[in-house]
Design brief:
The complex is a heterodimer of chains A (about 270) and B (about 250). Chain A has helices at about 50-55, 100-105, 115-125, 140-155, 170-190, 200-205, 235-270; strands at about 1-15, 20-35, 35-40, 65-70, 75, 85, 160-165, 190-195, 210-215, 220-225. Chain A has about 270 residues and is α/β, with parallel strands linked by helices. In chain A, the strands form two sheets. In chain A, strands 6-7-8-3-9-10 form a six-stranded mixed β-sheet, with helices on both faces. A four-stranded antiparallel β-sheet of chain A has the order 2-1-4-5, with helices on one face. In chain A, helix 2 (about 100-105) crosses helix 3. The radius of gyration of chain A is 19 Å and the shape is globular. Chain B has about 250 residues and is mostly helical. Chain B has one domain: MetI-like fold. Classes of the chains: A alpha/beta (about 270), B mainly alpha (about 250). The interface between A and B is medium-sized, with 19 and 19 residues. The structure holds adenosine-5'-diphosphate and magnesium ion. Magnesium ion binds near residues 48, 164 and 165 of chain A.
Chain lengths: ~270, ~250
C-alpha cells in the first residue's frame, strides 16, 4: 500500500486584492510507495510547492471530493511525527547553536534532552558537521546551513520527508555533493522522500520516480520510473537520454507557462469594461 | 604604527577641556558665581558625598533613584506588553497605534501640568512623567521587532508542530529580542530625563530639587557638582543596560 495517496485534489487560490480565483492544482492524483524517492518536477508556478504543502498539512485544498491520505489517514494539519518538511531556505534560528537548531523539532515533541542531543549529533555526523555543533548559523556557509537544515528534518526520524527545492539556493557543486549525501542517507535509513525541483538534472540525478507537472493549472502529466543504477553520474549516455525524455515533455509546459506571463500582464493593464 | 585607543583619545580630550576651563576661570576675571573652575567643582563633589555641601544629598538622590526605578519598571513592563498587543492583534494595532504615534510625536512636557493637576505634586507625578517620556520608544521598538520577524521562522515552527504560544516565546520573542532590548535601553535614558525634568518643573525633593536649590542660591560650585553627579548616574545606568543588552543578544 502506498504511504502517501493523493486522489483528485484541486486547489484554487483566491487573490484578495483582485478578487480573481486562480486554479493552481487541477484534479491531481499521485501516490508514493514506502521508501520512494519521488521527484515533483515542473516549470515554475505550476503548483509543486502547493501540492507539497497540501501533503504536509500546511495548506488546505478545495472541498470537492479530493483526498490526501498519509499512512491511510486523512491529513488535517502538520504532523511532525509522521512527516518532516524542509524549506527552500535553511531557516536556521540565529540565536541557537547548530546543535540547538537541529534539536528544535525534537523539543516540540518533548523528547528528553539526552536523546535530543544524541540524535542531533548522529545526523550532524552523517553530514560531516559534528565539529560545528556549537557554532552559530552565521558562521556557516550556505551549503553547511542547508546541511544543518537537512539534519533538522532527518532527526525527526519520520517515515516521510518532504523537501521543497531544498538545494535551489546552492551553487552547482554543493548541490551535487549534498544530493549525494542525501541519497546515501536515504539508502542507509530508508525513508520516503518527496522532493520538489525544477531542475531536470537534479531530478534525474536523485529521483527514483519522477512526476512531471503540466503548466498551470497543475496536473500530473507523466510519471516515470528512473531505473539508472546508483551511484549515478551526470553526463553519461543513459543519464542524458533520461534528461532528454523529460525535457521533450517539459518543453511544451515551460513554453506554455512562459507565454502566459505577458498575456496575464495585459489582462491586468486593460481597463475594466 | 600603533593606533591610539579611542578611550585614550577621549580621556585626553576631556583633560584638555578641563585644563582650558580651569585656566580660563583662573586667569580671567570671570566671577566664580558664573563659572566655577573644575578643581573647585571636584572638591565640591567630594563635599557633596561627605554630606557637607547640599542639604540631605543621600535622601534626595535616593528619592530620585527610587522614582527612576519605579518609573522604569512600569514603563518597561507595560511598554513591552503594549508593544506585544499592538503587534499581535490587528484590531488593537489599528485602533491604538495612531493615538500612540500622536502622543509620541508631541513634546511630552506640555502634558506635565495636566499630570500635576490630576495627581498632585508628589512622587507619583514625577514617576508618571518618567513613564510618559520613556514608554513610547519601548512600545514601538517591541512592536517593530515583532513585526519584522522573518515569516519563515514562524512557518518552520508551525510545521514542526509548535502551537501559537510556544511559537511566541521560542521564536518570535527571541527573534525580536535585539530590537526590543535597544528600545528598553533608549527608554531607560528617556525615563531618567523624564523624572529629572519633572523634579525641575515642580520643585520639592530629589536631585532636581538640589539642582534648583543650588541654582537659585547662586551656589555655582554645588550646582556643577550635582549636575555632574546626575550625569554620572545617567552614564552608569546606560552602561549597565548596554552591558545587559550585549550579554542577551549574542
Ligand atoms: N498563498 C497564495 N495565494 C495566492 N496564490 C498563490 C499562493 N501560493 C501560490 N499561489 C499561486 O499558485 C501558483 C503555484 O504556486 P507554487 O505552488 O508556489 O508553484 P511552484 O512551487 O511550482 O513554483 C503560482 O502561480 C502562484 O501565483
Ligand atoms: Mg515552489
Amino acid at each position: 500500500m502506498a504511504i502517501i495517496e493523493v486522489t483528485g485534489v484541486s486547489k484554487t487560490y483566491h487573490d484578495q486584492s483582485s478578487g480573481r480565483a486562480v486554479r493552481t492544482l487541477d484534479n491531481v492524483s499521485i501516490s508514493a510507495p514506502e521508501n520512494d524517492f519521488l521527484i515533483l518536477l515542473g516549470p515554475s508556478g505550476c503548483g509543486k510547492s502547493t501540492l507539497l504543502n497540501i501533503i504536509a498539512g500546511l495548506t488546505s485544498f478545495d472541498d470537492d471530493g479530493g483526498r490526501v491520505l498519509v499512512q491511510g489517514k486523512p491529513v488535517t494539519g502538520p504532523n511532525p511525527k509522521l512527516m518532516a518538511y524542509m524549506f527552500q531556505d535553511p531557516v536556521l534560528y540565529p540565536w541557537r547553536t547548530v546543535l540547538k537548531n537541529v534539536e528544535f523539532g525534537l523539543e516540540a515533541q518533548g523528547i528528553s534532552k539526552d536523546e535530543r542531543r544524541e540524535r542531533a549529533l548522529k545526523y550532524l555526523r552523517l553530514v560531516g558537521l559534528e565539529e560545528f555543533a556549537h557554532a552559530y548559523p552565521r558562521q556557516l556557509s550556505g551549503g553547511m546551513a542547508q546541511r544543518v537544515a537537512i539534519c533538522r528534518s532527518l532527526a525527526l526520524e519520520t517515515d516521510i520527508v518532504l523537501m521543497d527545492e531544498p538545494f535551489a539556493a546552492l551553487d552547482e557543486q554543493s548541490r551535487i555533493l549534498i544530493g549525494d549525501e542525501l541519497v546515501s542517507i536515504w539508502r542507509q535509513v530508508r525513508r520516503t522522500i518527496v522532493f520538489v525541483t525544477h531542475s531536470l538534472t537534479e531530478a534525474v540525478y536523485l529521483g527514483q520516480r519522477i512526476a512531471l507537472f503540466s503548466a498551470r493549472p497543475g496536473r500530473i502529466k507523466l510519471e516515470i520510473a528512473n531505473p539508472l543504477p546508483r551511484p549515478r553520474s551526470i553526463g553519461t549516455a543513459e543519464f542524458n537520454q533520461m534528461v532528454d525524455t523529460l525535457w521533450t515533455q517539459l518543453k511544451a509546459e515551460s513554453l506554455a507557462s512562459i507565454k502566459r506571463e505577458p498575456a496575464e500582464q495585459e489582462k491586468i493593464l486593460l481597463p475594466k469594461e | 604604527m600603533h593606533r591610539v585607543p579611542p578611550a585614550l583619545t577621549r580621556l585626553a580630550l576631556i583633560l584638555a577641556l578641563l585644563a582650558v576651563w580651569e585656566l580660563a576661570t583662573r586667569l580671567t576675571s570671570v566671577n566664580v558665581i558664573l563659572i566655577a573652575p573644575p578643581s573647585i567643582v571636584l572638591w565640591e563633589i567630594v563635599r557633596v558625598f561627605a554630606g557637607l555641601s547640599v542639604p540631605d544629598f543621600y535622601l534626595n538622590a535616593g528619592i530620585t533613584l527610587a522614582e527612576i526605578a519605579v518609573a522604569y519598571a512600569i514603563a518597561a513592563v507595560f511598554g513591552v506588553l503594549m508593544g506585544i498587543a499592538v503587534a499581535s492583534s490587528k484590531v488593537i494595532g489599528d485602533a491604538f497605534e495612531p493615538i500612540l504615534l500622536v502622543l509620541y510625536a508631541i513634546p511630552k512636557i506640555i502634558l506635565y501640568p495636566v499630570i500635576v493637576l490630576m495627581i498632585g505634586t508628589g512622587y507619583a507625578s514625577k514617576i508618571s512623567f518618567g513613564i510618559l517620556v520613556g514608554i513610547f520608544v519601548i512600545i514601538f521598538n517591541t512592536a517593530a521587532g515583532l513585526r519584522q520577524v522573518e515569516p519563515n521562522y514562524v512557518r518552520l515552527a508551525h510545521s514542526l508542530g509548535y502551537g501559537k504560544g510556544k511559537i511566541f516565546f521560542k521564536v518570535e520573542l527571541p527573534a525580536a529580542a535585539q530590537t526590543i532590548l535597544s528600545g528598553l535601553r533608549l527608554g531607560f535614558g528617556y525615563t531618567i530625563i523624564g523624572v529629572i525634568t519633572g523634579e525641575l518643573l515642580v520643585v520639592n525633593v530629589g536631585l532636581g530639587f538640589l539642582i534648583d536649590w543650588a541654582s537659585v542660591n547662586y551656589h555655582t560650585a554645588q550646582l556643577y557638582a550635582v549636575v555632574l553627579i546626575t550625569l554620572a548616574i545617567g552614564v552608569v545606568a546606560n552602561l549597565v543596560v548596554s552591558r545587559l543588552e550585549r550579554r542577551w543578544v549574542r
